[in-house]
């Protein structure tokens, strides 16, 4: 099997003697070797042995992901409130749960209408982010090695929640709506071919047009097939709009773009620039903010950009760049 057919699961997420009884694999080069078959529980000795050998992940078959997702999501709150795990471990657990969730939704669009499931995940993410001031840093350590839609969606969501918490006095329910909307902001990309999404060279005019349709395509599908509210849907549709009118799909300006879509768009650009992608090296946080201020002049609300800088940049980072 190719690597893409197996799904990684962090060792911290595999709770000894409680994890579902599924086959687990080790990756060796381009091959996958059976580590534990059905019929044997994952033990404390397994966890210790793997961590001693600096193995961070085991892999499962997609056929087993339904039961894995159910286990992770039903236990996430217990993991995140447990004193047995440090902040970095909790970051890995919420990361694992969230990317599994986003992957499941994007591969099975009909599940996007399960609002109770979405709300539980966002509330767990909010619990984690409010747990200590280093939560975002802990989460970033497990998100910066790969760029793909699922990881990007989680990073944008986490950062958007933090910016909203600094910028506005929102009720709990509205914060949950913000989280759901940003988690699904790139949902429309399910309608774009993988050939276009993975292309490293220059895109043709037709391919650019297909990319630029994803906000409206995602909005239309979710509006017609779910009961997501206007806060969520506006983030999906408008996260590429810019307050100077140079965005898409509608070329909206200033107050015509909802505040949450403005925050989502701001965090979307920041997260895109700060993660390695094919053909482009990630920028450090402070340089990313400079690019957003100077090369994307008047695209973003200055107050929101100041808040983003305060959350992501330190004096040490500025000195390194300068």
Polypeptide structure, described:
By secondary structure, this protein is mostly helical. The protein folds into two domains: 1-60, no CATH class; 63-321, Hypothetical protein af1432, CATH 1.10.3210.10. The protein has 15 helices and four strands. It has helices at 44-52, 65-81, 87-107, 115-129, 135-141, 149-167, 172-183, 194-197, 205-212, 214-225, 230-238, 259-273, 285-294, 302-312, 315-321, and strands spanning 7-10, 24-28, 31-36, 57-60. Strand 2 (24-28) and strand 3 form a beta hairpin. Helix 2 packs antiparallel against helix 3. The protein is globular and about 60 Å long. The termini are far apart. 37% of the residues are buried.
What letter string, H or E per element, gives the SSE order?
EEEHEHHHHHHHHHHHHHH
Could you name the ranges where pLDDT drops below 50 across 5 or more consecutive residues?
Answer: 316-322
CATH class of the largest domain: Mainly Alpha
Task: Count the domains.
Answer: 2
From the helix content, strand content and strand pairing, which structural class follows?
A: mainly alpha
Distance between the termini: 47 Å
Beta-strand percent range: 5-15%
Main sheet strand line-up: 1-4
Overall outline = globular
Helix count, per DSSP?
A: 15
CATH topology of the largest domain: Hypothetical protein af1432
The major sheet is characterized as:
2 strands, antiparallel
Number of strands: 4
Mean pLDDT across all amino acids = 86
CATH superfamily of the largest domain: Hypothetical protein af1432
Fraction of helical residues: 40-55%
User: What is the correct CATH architecture of the largest domain?
Assistant: Orthogonal Bundle
Radius of gyration, in Å, reads 20 Å
């Amino acid at each position: 099997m190719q690597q893409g057919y197996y799904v990684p699961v962090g060792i911290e997420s595999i709770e000894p003697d409680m994890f579902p009884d599924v086959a687990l694999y080790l990756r060796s080069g381009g091959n996958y070797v059976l580590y534990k078959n059905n019929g044997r529980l994952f033990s404390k000795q397994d966890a210790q042995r793997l961590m001693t050998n600096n193995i961070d992940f085991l892999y499962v078959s997609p056929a087993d992901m339904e039961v894995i997702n159910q286990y992770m999501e039903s236990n996430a709150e217990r993991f995140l409130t447990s004193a047995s795990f440090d902040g970095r471990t909790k970051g890995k657990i919420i990361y694992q749960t969230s990317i599994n969730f986003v992957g499941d939704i994007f591969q099975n669009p009909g599940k996007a209408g399960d609002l109770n499931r979405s709300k539980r995940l966002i509330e767990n993410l909010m619990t984690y982010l409010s747990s200590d001031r280093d939560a975002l840093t802990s989460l970033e350590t497990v998100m910066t090695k790969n760029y793909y839609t699922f990881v990007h969606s989680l990073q944008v969501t986490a950062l958007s929640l933090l910016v909203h918490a600094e910028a506005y006095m929102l009720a709990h329910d509205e914060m949950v709506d913000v989280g759901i909307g940003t988690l699904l902001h790139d949902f429309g990309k399910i309608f774009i071919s993988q050939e276009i999404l993975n292309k490293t060279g220059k895109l043709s005019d037709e391919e650019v047009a297909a990319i630029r349709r994803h906000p409206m395509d995602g909005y239309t599908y979710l509006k017609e097939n779910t009961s997501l509210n206007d806060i969520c849907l506006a983030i999906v549709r408008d996260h590429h709009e810019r307050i100077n009118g140079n965005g898409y799909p509608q070329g909206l300006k200033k107050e015509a773009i909802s505040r949450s879509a403005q925050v989502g768009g701001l965090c979307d650009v920041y997260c895109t620039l700060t993660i390695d992608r094919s053909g482009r090296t990630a920028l450090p946080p402070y340089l990313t903010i400079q690019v957003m201020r100077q090369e994307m002049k008047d695209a973003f609300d200055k107050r929101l950009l100041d808040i983003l800088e305060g959350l992501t940049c330190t004096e040490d980072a500025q000195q390194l760049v300068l």
